[in-house]
Amino acid sequence: MKTLGYYNGTIGEIEDMSVPMSDRACYFGDGVYDASYSVNDVIFALDDHIDRFFNSAGLLEIKLTLTKPELKALLQALVKKVDKKDGVIVYWQVSRGTAPRNHVFPDVPSNLWVMIREMALRNNFAPFKVITLEDTRFLHCNIKTLNLIPSVLANEKAKRAGCDEAIFHRSGRVTECAHSNVHIIQNGILRTCPTDNLILPGIAREHLAKYAFDLNIPVDMSPFTLQELFTADEVIITSSGALCVPVSHIDGKPVGGKAPHVFNNLRLAVIEEFEAATGTKLPRGI
Fold first, then answer.
1. Residue 206 is assigned to a structural domain of this protein
2. 15 in helix, strand or coil?
3. Strand partners, 186
4. Could you give the CA distance from residue 7 to residue 16 in angstroms, rounded to a whole number?
5. Is there a single domain that holds both residue 157 and residue 243?
6. Known catalytic residue: 258?
7. Which residues of 52-68 are buried (b: 16+ CB within 10 A; e: fewer)?
8. Could you tell me if residue 272 is inside a domain?
């Protein structure tokens, strides 16, 4: 198959799939999702992503019809049905179910969606240019909800500004990006936002912090400010699609580039983990 769509057991090419109009994802965005890359039929950090998926569903009181091992086995089986083996995105979501529109939770089974299609992994040696935006999202950013309109609008603003991402801030405190986590290196310390309700606990963020500890780089998980973002020695973007990418410009101003040795050691460790897990080789330059 060139692409794969899955809905409650039905499988087909994505463009051939259909879902009920009464699925609560359609009119409430009532669901959660997760995603990771697959190379050589290996879905990277799958256990971490499934743990986060179940946590998000639990926070919204959505009852899943599969256990963690069952979902893992299903995703691994589905990815093997796709023809392309080097670089596909595996996306899955659950909605609260199919029922007439009513704000009250219905007593129906949840619906599982899966989509698999080709998508190139971001070149980790091509720096990002970003913009900053006031964070106007709701106060449950720790849940990977389907309600992504603020992030959609932010990414469109970034695109129109000729940039790759948008960094959110609330009253001067940096939170995260529209679909990534952001970190800084200052005075040899990796600073990453605390995993409170203002950010999504990114899987790539977790792996970055792990390798910082392994490399004896101190990690500070306390909030940092917009001013500290602009004056940091390095600014780093992480996500499943951009494992560890530097930021070169924020709002048109040059940033970072002052601690290349620290950053390069971190980036190499993250890249080598992905390569070892998936049996592939990522670019080492632009």
1. yes
2. helix
3. 189
4. 12
5. yes
6. no
7. bbbebbeebebebeeee
8. yes
Same domain assignment for residues 51 and 174: no
CATH of the domain at 155: 3.20.10.10
Catalytic residue among 81, 144, 159, 210: 144
- CA dist., res. 242 & res. 214, Å (int): 21
Spell out the per-residue pLDDT of the chain, length 286, in tens.
Answer: 999 999 999 999 999 999 999 999 999 999 999 999 999 999 999 999 999 999 999 999 999 999 999 999 999 999 999 999 989 999 999 999 999 999 999 999 999 999 999 999 999 999 999 999 999 999 999 999 999 999 999 999 999 999 999 999 999 999 999 999 999 999 999 999 999 999 999 999 999 999 999 999 999 999 999 999 999 999 999 999 999 999 999 999 999 999 999 999 999 999 999 999 999 999 998 8
Whether 285 maps to a domain, the answer reads no
Range of the domain at 173: 128-278
